[in-house]
């Protein structure tokens, strides 16, 4: 199978991590486990993870919105150059937990820095390296936040403490981005049971890449 770049997006608690785990298992079932590169943003590289710590730390309360936007883009640039592009070049399947659409939704729409302005800033960071396929896991904000509150095992981060209206703008940002780029972005109803969400995502992947239905690698 040739290199593929797939990103998973959505508001906090939409189920990205859970769905990605199940999709990686499915890829293993079709004998593609050794081709999978699982990664995340912010982060994905040592430099990116250091930027992640700075971005998500509750000590960064005074961070300016544009500083935040540039730091997400800087983490992304390093990620693209150091990990994503080389992996695609060697025919790996890159599965990324959040990518450029998160910046457009959170910084562009959530922080109201401007949808197009944040897209342009990120164009400089990613160049021509956009996902082949992006899943936006969509659900009412309250549901995602409730899921997190019920099951939280990791620490609360700085962005977890935003208001409901911030997250509602973020959700609209993802949906607007999907409307703008329907070839790349598929919106999935993430309110369904996890098995149904995974089935839907896998179906979309196999539609696009029929070799996934019967991979004999
Ligand atoms: N479809 C679902 N139905 C009910 N609960 C779910 C579903 N998907 C995930 N969950 C649960 O919701 C919580 C958040 O899921 P998960 O960590 O996968 O979301 P996430 O999108 O990665 O969150 P974050 O953006 O905060 O990292 C977990 O406890 C998970 O078990
Ligand atoms: C890539 C990216 C992320 N964010 C936000 C979204 C989340 O609140 C955190 C990351 O935490 P997660 O548990 O890994 O989902 O960062 C953002 O605001 N902008 C971005 O570009």
From TrEMBL:
Alphabetic keyword roster: ATP-binding, Kinase, Nucleotide biosynthesis, Nucleotide-binding, Transferase
EC numbers for this chain: 2.7.4.9
Keyword Phosphoprotein assigned: no
UniProt-listed GO biological process terms: dTDP biosynthetic process; dTTP biosynthetic process; dUDP biosynthetic process
Name of the top EC class for this enzyme: transferase
Listed SUPFAM superfamilies: P-loop containing nucleoside triphosphate hydrolases (SSF52540)
Reaction catalyzed: dTMP + ATP = dTDP + ADP
Keyword Translocase: no
One cellular component (GO) term of this entry: cytosol
Highest taxon of the lineage: Bacteria
Database matches in InterPro entries: P-loop_NTPase, Thymidylate_kin-like_dom, Thymidylate_kin_CS, Thymidylate_kinase
GO molecular function, one term: ATP binding
Residue ranges of every copy of the Thymidylate kinase-like domain listed in the record: 8-200
Positions bound to ATP: 10-17
Function according to Swiss-Prot or TrEMBL: Phosphorylation of dTMP to form dTDP in both de novo and salvage pathways of dTTP synthesis.
UniProt xrefs under HAMAP family: Thymidylate_kinase (MF_00165)
Family: Belongs to the thymidylate kinase family.
Protein name, UniProt field: Thymidylate kinase
Record gene name: tmk
